[in-house]
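BUG: 3D viewer hangs when loading the predicted structure for this chain

Environment: internal workstation, default settings.
Expected: structure renders.
Actual: progress bar stalls at 90%.

Input used:
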Amino acid sequence: MPDQKETESPQQQKLTFEQAMEKLEQIVGSMEQGGVPLEEMIGKFEEGAALASYCQEKLASLKRKMEILVQDRETGKAAWREMTPEETEAAENH
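C-alpha cells produced before the viewer hung:
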C-alpha cells in the first residue's frame, strides 16, 4: 500500500522540476523492466501522469516568463511577445 507521500500531487510534495523529472524517469524505468503487478503498474502510471502534467505546467510557466522578459531591442523595454525561433533555440542551447 502506498504511503501518504506517494499519493500526494507533485505540487503538494513541492518538487522542483528536476526532482519531478527524476522521479518520472524512475517510474518509467521500473515499468519498462516489467514484473510489476498490475495494480502497482496502474498506480505508477497514475503517478507518472501527474508528474508529467506537473512538468508540462512548469515548462509552460517558464515559457511565459521568458516571453515577458524578452527585451525589445529598439526600445529596451520589456515586450509582450513570443520569442522568435532563433531566440528560443539560443535559450535552449545555453
